[in-house]
Amino acid sequence: MKRNQFVLATLVLTTAFMTVPSFAQESMLHILSPASGVVVRPGQTVTITVSADAAVEKLVLTGQHPLGMAQLASGGAAGRVAQSQEHPLQFLLTIPTAIQPGIYRVTAVGRTADGTVESNALALDVERPDQPSRVWAEPSIIQFAHLGDQIPLRVLAAFADGSQAELTRSHNTAFTSADPRVASITPGGMVTAVKEGTTSILVRTPSADYSIPVRVQESP
Q: Are 208 and 117 part of one and the same domain?
């Protein structure tokens, strides 16, 4: 009985020790604002507040392509922490004007004497302020010859100013299969042939809906 208790205690202590680095990273470097999922516009400059422990140095804030790196708003030289957790750092990140709508992640990364630390990820929802005048999908018809095959669906849009953008990754774009038993679709627009038959994929946007016929017929 005592041996079992000793083994159990050892396991508990080992598990607790193994989880310390993850907790330590989060407490040393944390993105405070804005809230994850905030909607931003192309061309907009976003202020991002980061709490950094005094032990963190050479701090950078980098975004998923094509966001790039943010600039330190004030206080200290870029890339070096000059403030503490009580006085968070502020970074300025300008959203590219030509970026496609969708979710993009931003992370703060710094160095300590023990190595690299990384913050929680901030999700920025980049969306255009104007609605498209026309929406269509590519391909406009999907034909599968083998079960399990996949085809990515792209949602495109034209706007009143003459520009075009891909809306596949936009938070405002939703996909639905009329019969998931024939063809399924992921939130990111990947269509998969499930069984023989015909169905359609419905693309919903705030301004228009678009239907894509789907046929699954295995080749002999």
A: no
Are the C-beta atoms of residues 107 and 48 closer than 8 Å to each other? no
CB count within 10 Å of CB 201 equals 21
pTM of the model: 0.77
Q: Are 106 and 119 in contact (CB under 8 A)?
A: no
The CATH number of whichever domain residue 63 belongs to comes to 2.60.40.10
CATH value at residue 156: 2.60.40.1080
Structure tokens at 192: 């998969």
> Strand 142-144 and strand 209-216: pairing?
parallel
Q: What are the structure tokens assigned to 41, written together?
A: 């516009």
Q: pLDDT tens digits for 156-200?
A: 999 999 999 999 999 999 999 999 999 999 999 999 999 999 999
d(Cα 117, Cα 123) in Å, to the nearest integer? 19
Question: HSE-up of 206 (CA within 13 Å, CB side)?
Answer: 10
216: its two tokens: 């699954």
| CA–CA separation, 96 and 70 (whole Å) | 12
